[in-house]
Design goal:
The chain has three domains: 107 residues, Cobalt-precorrin-4 Transmethylase, domain 1, CATH 3.40.1010.20; 84 residues, Rossmann fold (3-Layer(aba) Sandwich), CATH 3.40.50.11270; 95 residues, 3-Layer(aba) Sandwich (Cobalt-precorrin-4 Transmethylase, domain 1). α4 packs parallel to α5 and α8 packs parallel to α9. β4, α3 and β5 form a beta-alpha-beta unit. It is α/β, with parallel strands linked by helices and 309 residues long.
Length: 309
């Protein structure tokens, strides 16, 4: 291996919504005792889920698996209204850890639908955030994912058309989709502010800043993390070879055979200690030059759910 230098992207790792969601589970365990039930993965990171399981969290696919009257936490990705209704029907103590920026998209979906608009939702089919958003107005939302989808999508006759997007998409690719929609539907309305969250945008900006100086970019994040996958795509679009890894055990030295500089970042649901382990993996192989490139200053915090405030 000929790697001489590591370049760390900043900002990286936990965003305010993920930090809030993980702390919600930890605070709930402290306040109510184990077990605390969590619907779906609280955030899309295998290591975070395992850590919380070791502290007494029980992860379930649906609220039907939670004993009546127990504490149930909803993940950061948001849920459809019927999930809240099910929690009330089963007398669960529901704590909603939905990221406030996802909640913003839900509110926009309800507002557009109530105003008679048909909504084009830009996102990935099957993603939990998309399922939750579509549940707010299923008869008024059409899901698309690519510029090609935007060129061919057939929409119901309506005086109003609006678009919204999943919060963890590629900024550049989403803008390409929006450009096509505006070309086809000049009167289409959008949200007052971009739906793609500040952390997604900032981490993509930071990856662009390191990719041009890196032969390889390693993105620490799980395979089901949308924003982590987008970071790999952004790195590759910026000229580096990109790889997604859950931790240092997944590094393939063959990736590094011709690399002198390796960039490292992490998705918004990956804790910093996983990055530390990757850096230590390189240090054990003689790579001791580590520089950080800060592209954006970030200082965002969200209050905990009111049940835990």
């Amino acid at each position: 291996m000929n790697v001489e230098r590591l370049v760390l992207a900043a900002p990286r790792g936990y965003c305010a919504g993920v930090d809030r969601a993980v702390e919600t589970v930890e605070r709930a365990l402290g306040a109510f005792g184990a077990p605390v039930y969590v619907r779906k993965q609280i955030v899309h990171n295998l290591h975070v889920v395992r850590d919380l399981e070791s502290k007494g969290a029980v992860f379930v696919d649906e609220l039907a698996e939670v004993p009546e009257g127990a504490v149930a936490i909803l993940s950061a990705h948001g849920v459809a209204p019927e999930v809240h209704a099910e929690g009330r029907e089963r007398n669960l103590r529901v704590i909603d850890a939905t990221c406030p920026l996802v909640t913003k998209v839900h509110i926009e979906a309800k507002r557009f639908a109530a105003g008679g608009a048909h909504i084009v939702l830009i996102g990935h089919e099957g993603h939990e955030e998309v399922i939750g958003t579509m549940g707010e107005a299923p008869a008024s939302i059409t899901l698309i994912g690519t510029p090609e989808d935007a060129r061919t999508v057939s929409l119901p006759a309506s005086d109003r058309i609006a678009y919204l997007s999943q919060t963890t998409l590629s900024v550049d690719e989403t803008n390409d989709v929006i450009d096509v929609l505006r070309e086809r539907f000049p009167s289409i309305e959008g949200p007052p502010q971009d739906d793609i969250c500040y952390a997604t945008q900032n981490r993509q900006t930071a990856v662009k800043a390191i990719a041009s100086a890196s032969d390889v970019v390693l993105v620490v994040g799980s395979q089901n993390s949308s924003n982590s996958k987008r970071l790999v795509e952004v790195a590759e679009a910026s000229g580096a070879r990109g790889y997604l890894i859950d931790d240092e055990t997944e590094i393939d030295e063959a990736w590094l055979a011709a690399a002198r500089t390796v960039g490292i970042t992490s998705g918004a649901s990956a804790p910093e200690w996983l990055v530390d382990r990757v850096v230590a993996w390189f240090a054990a192989r003689g790579v001791n030059t580590v520089d950080e490139v800060r592209a954006v200053d970030e200082d965002v915090h969200f209050a905990l759910p009111r049940e835990l405030s």
